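To the wet lab folks,

You asked to see what we're planning to order before we commit. Fair enough. Below is the target structure as C-alpha cells, and below that is the sequence we designed to fit it. If anything looks off to you, flag it before the synthesis order goes out.
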C-alpha cells in the first residue's frame, strides 16, 4: 500500500472509541476499522454530493471491490480518533485513501484504501470508466 496521498476532495471526522468496539484485549477489534472507514467515506461522499442515495438516483451502484488496511498502533476505549478520507482516483474507479490518527497527538494508527467501481443498476454490468455523473459531482471534465 502506498503512502497516504492527499487530494482536493477530502473529508475529516472525529469520533470517540466506544466500549462496544473493543475486543477481549481491550483495544479496537480490527474489523471495526472498516466501520470507521465507512463513516468518513460517507462524509466525503456527502461533501461531493454523491452519497449512496444520489448514486442510486443516478442509476449506479458503487460497490467496494478492494480494501487494503495497515494497522500501525491500536486504539483504546475513550480515545478520540481523527478519520480522513481522500479521493485519489476517479477516472475508471473511485479510489479513496484513508488515514486514522490519534486526534490529540496526530500519531498514525491505521492507513487504508478502498476501490469502488460503478455498476449500472439496471443491467448489473460493471462500467470500465466512471460515468459522467461522477465528473459532474467533482466539477471536472472527463479526461
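Sequence we intend to order:
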Amino acid at each position: 500500500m502506498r503512502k497516504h496521498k492527499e487530494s482536493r476532495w477530502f473529508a475529516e471526522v472525529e469520533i470517540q472509541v466506544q466500549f462496544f468496539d473493543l475486543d477481549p484485549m481491550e483495544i479496537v477489534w480490527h474489523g471495526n476499522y472498516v466501520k470507521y472507514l465507512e463513516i468518513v467515506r460517507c462524509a466525503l461522499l456527502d461533501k461531493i454530493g454523491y452519497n449512496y442515495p444520489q448514486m442510486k438516483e443516478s442509476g449506479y451502484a458503487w460497490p467496494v471491490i478492494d480494501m487494503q488496511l495497515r494497522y500501525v498502533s491500536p486504539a483504546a476505549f475513550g480515545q478520540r480518533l481523527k478519520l480522513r478520507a481522500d479521493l485519489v482516483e476517479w477516472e475508471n474507479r473511485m479510489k479513496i485513501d484513508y488515514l486514522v490518527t490519534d486526534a490529540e497527538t496526530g500519531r498514525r494508527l491505521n492507513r487504508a484504501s478502498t476501490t469502488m467501481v460503478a455498476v449500472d443498476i439496471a443491467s448489473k454490468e460493471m462500467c470500465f470508466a466512471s460515468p459522467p455523473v461522477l465528473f459532474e459531482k467533482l466539477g471536472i471534465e472527463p479526461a
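Structural context that might help your review: The two ends are 25 Å apart (CA to CA). The chain has three helices and seven strands.

Thanks,
Computational group
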